[in-house]
Amino acid sequence: MSAREPIPLHIVTGFLGAGKTSLINRLLSNAALADALVIVNEWGEIGLDHLLFEAVEGEVISLNSGCLCCTLRGDLVDRLNALLDRRDAGTIAPFARVILETTGLADPAPILFALAADPRLAARFRVAGVTTLIDAVNGEATLAAHGEAQRQAALADRIGLAKSDLVAADARSVGLAAVRAALSALNPVAPILDVAAGELDAAAFLAEPLALRRLDDAPPLVHAASVQSHVFVSEALIQPPALGRFLDLLSELLGPRLLRVKGLIGLADNPDRPLLIHGAQHVFHAPRILSAWPDGERLSRLVVIADGVAPARIEALWAALTGAPQIDTPDLAALTDNPLAPKRGGLLA
Fold it and tell me: What domain range includes position 323?
């Protein structure tokens, strides 16, 4: 990996007892995850002790898989910056990727925000995917009872359905279908992979997490939870200044309720190379122009994950951006070109 190439950072989350540590232990045995650094929230909560080989300076531990592991007791930003300092100084092995295991009650949104808001971390790391584990036995009840589990599922790039082999045989078909339906209602674009069946292997874990495949067949959303995923698809090419104004307005409209935005956008001035955008709350990573459309389909696709926002408000902004006609709704220029409105620099200005 080039010293200037951003280091992939994988977030593994899931409610208490979902199977996060078991998944990470299994993944670390694959050579594709050699030279990884694993960060865990509390040392006492995980079962990595059987992997320990030798202690390294400070709180960084070498695992017999070849990976490194450290605890996270303080601020994530401080810890990652300190690890970068040691990596750059050569006092620890030059890890090629980071796997961050959150606690069972963690909300991934502040983690994504912290990575985007710190200039150094935003330049040195790229979010390589949020993987959320769901316990198939208790998953439906957990999602219904705990907002943290809902947010973990909604923010996922991929979902691992763990412990499906423990579901009673006489209830397996109906039970797993109910869990999958609840997950799809929260997050209609993330693939759901059966962990016990081996579907969430190293290759699936390391795959580029666009989670923006064709969305036309996404299931209808069930608006029971306050956290909702809003999915948009359009063939229209977007003018870069209009996209910048759209993202500014989206951020201002939703504020802290904007949990995550990710999109693959076709730009009018470069239609052959889509723009990949990714943001958390009101901070956006630098947009990245891909070399080509990943699936060959030239469709702009946007996923907006928000908490407690009426879908119509986001739909109106998207319609204004793409030029879709709506009754009694101003276009994007009318929303932003008002001489009394504050001028914005914008992400793409």
Answer: 227-336
